[in-house]
Amino acid sequence: xxxxxxxxxxxxxxxxxxxxxxxxxxxxxxxxxxxxxxxxxxxxxxxxxxxxxxxxxxxxxxxxxxxxxxxxxxxxxxxxxxxxxxxxxxxxxxxxxxxxxxxxxxxxxxxxxxxxxxxxxxxxxxxxxxxxxxxxxxxxxxxxxxxxxxxxxxxxxxxxxxxxxxxxxxxxxxxxxxxxxxxxxxxxxxxxxxxxxxxxxxxxxxxxxxxxxxxxxxxxxxxxxxxxxxxxxxxxxxxxxxxxxxxxxxxxxxxxxxxxxxxxxxxxxxxxxxxxxxxxxxxxxxxxxxxxxxxxxxxxxxxxxxxxxxxxxxxxxxxxxxxxxxxxxxxxxxxxxxxxxxxxxxxxxxxxxxxxxxxxxxxxxxxxxxxxxxxxxxxxxxxxxxxxxxxxxxxxxxxxxxxxxxxxxxxxxxxxxxxxxxxxxxxxxxxxxxxxxxxxxxxxxxxxxxxxxxxxxxxxxxxxxxxxxxxxxxxxxxxxxxxxxxxxxxxxxxxxxxxxxxxxxxxxxxxxxxxxxxxxxxxxxxxxxxxxxxxxxxxxxxxxxxxxxxxxxxxxxxxxxxxxxxxxxxxxxxxxxxxxxxxxxxxxxxxxxxxxxxxxxxxxxxxxxxxxxxxxxxxxxxxxxxxxxxxxxxxxxxxxxxxxxxxxxxxxxxxxxxxxxxxxxxxxxxxxxxxxxxxxxxxxxxxxxxxxxxxxxxxxxxxxxxxxxxxxxxxxxxxxxxxxxxxxxxxxxxxxxxxxxxxxxxxxxxxxxxxxxxxxxxxxxxxxxxxxxxxxxxxxxxxxxxxxxxxxxxxxxxxxxxxxxxxxxxxxxxxxxxxxxxxxxxxxxxxxxxxxxxxxxxxxxxxxxxxxxxxxxxxxxxxxxxxxxxxxxxxxxxxxxxxxxxxxxxxxxxxxxxxxxxxxxxxxxxxxx
Length: 913
Prior knowledge:
The strands form seven sheets. Strands 16-2-1-17-18-20-19 form a seven-stranded mixed sheet, sandwiched between helices. Strands 3, 4, 11, 12 and 15 form a five-stranded antiparallel sheet that branches. Among the domains are: 3-72, no CATH class; 83-115, no CATH class; 183-479, no CATH class; 754-909, no CATH class. Helices cover 44% and strands 15% of the residues. Helix 16 packs antiparallel against helix 20. It has 34 helices and 24 strands. The chain is α+β, with helices and mostly antiparallel strands. Strand 11 and strand 12 form a beta hairpin.
């Protein structure tokens, strides 16, 4: 990460156009041809390779860290620090390492007397145990869920097994895939009469409109493909009181818009497209939810149900098939795709699929090739019964999907690979196909590849009215693991030669993965690194049953010592006293199975002071103390991350509690203030003001962590009964003494974080409402539009009402009103309406409305009267701060108001008695 290291990682050339733009005028004359155009600059003739390298590094070293990364390999893709760097490292640490694994071993032996042992009892997908093993530690990973344990086992033993294992797995996967492909081709259930092969089937639900009695196909939109401009169009059939679904490609913009807006499901209502009806019927009414949306009025499916019965509310209908036509044109193989509505032969093929499945259903369930488990009621799973009547996990798949996925499992079982690496990798590959090939797999009409997406696009089981189904050829990229990253070599040519005979992916130390409750394991580790469930944790224990239903019988064969149920009753969930007791039991067990000089790292991301107060109690009761806290940027911009989320995660460093110190609560507040300020100062020094990594919510997280450091420092606080506090139920809205301390930490953080460039003395004189507005503009100027950011800001300043200051409160579009948008609303009201900042905003509006800056100045003089001169300096500071947003490209709404603020600030500055 240092400058020299980034230079060594640089593997991509900076384009000439960017080089040109980042040079000074005199430097451009030195490197580029005279009169060279800016959009396609040319280097001077005769520029050597070495000179080009000098130019690249000259500009590269002017980039920010984040900008440099786009031209760099990842650290693991190069051959490690240079010999000179290793000499400096070894001299500093007293080691003799020549690689990272040597260094880890040396440091472990120095501190613990052996190679470090790292464990994670909430291992999830296994990234922590894998990375620990990769850098040379002994690794242990466990999770209550056997699904998570299997993923971790695969990470350690398949990904970490080296190239020989990879080759075995690739061969095994090919064998299974080719066998299934042959079987499906023999059945001719994916080919039509022209020899075309299907790569996508589109299905929708269908229901009877209770007003007119017509059968209505259900879908929120009838757009099939944006790139192919393909839509489905409903054509009324007056004779049979139903609709034909016509498929059209290459349609006009107007037809695309019509298809997008004419969906028959809108705002959870069926909108009948019958030209003689047009009624809007709540979906809950269709489902016969008589009293509330939670009532289950649908027929509950039985195990043998593979498709809806004729009397069921929701039928299923195949309405479109995408066919792949392949032919030769000379020496070229041409592939074309066609969206077509199904014909009579296609419907016969659907019947053939159901017939094939019915003939195998009993046997396949017995063998575990398709699920046989019931869906247990729960926060996530009950909706499947309520919204569709599904009672077993195989009901989430249609007959075509069950037949294809069952074939994969049958082939895997028939091969009986001796090596567990091949069995586990193949098992996970098939389960990945289950994720992309279910009734809950959304059809994605956008982008270059119109396709069905995964069930778990978010952490929920979302029932759909229309969905996509994949075929053998479209499952191929999902089924086969992408091993390309394992084939990447260091970009250094000499390192390439040196590494040719060495398998850098074999994890050479002991690594274990198993399903285990964090409260019951008994292996001692030197370092525990955990990312525990939070108080509002996702229901992974329920969601994992989607996968577990498919491979629980296979797990019994592969790992006889493992249990194969989700252990739902033991899952750590909720936010009540049971959650707190479970967490204490888990972390007390970790503390008891940690060496005396060991350490724990707890990753925690939450924005609720009450949850942090619970965490303080949990760690305290577990015999642990927080000795350090680091807030690191862990999230990047993503459509899936839209909403109320933070960019940082706090890493709490914990050691065993050995103190006998006692404190009183009133003694803690000044300590918390010092600790919070020290924490924030360290983050501010690291942060880039022009391109900040941390937002205000992240600084508040750091304040929480600083408060924990103070609270857990003591053995006892004012006779506080930790055991009772953990176990007792809480009244709604009740704040514990610990939560009050943490709230104070957040208040201190908000007061301490003065907006950049704002006078700190004047900042202290502002009211909480004014601080919220000024600080809110700063976070908005950084491109922050999450409603959660403003909620946390308000919480920090102790505000209950701030909606009147917002121009928009919609998710990811939240922003504050400008002076022109406020007009005279709330002026003079209690709270923000009676503040200096509000007066300044109205003065800007007055000056703009009259097109005279003096009108704004006169407003100040008349309204503030005798207070005008003593408040003038503060008003100038506020106006100049607002004036900054004139040039902010992300705040175009401020351009005119900000310019007027600048003129008004000048008028006040030049005002005299």
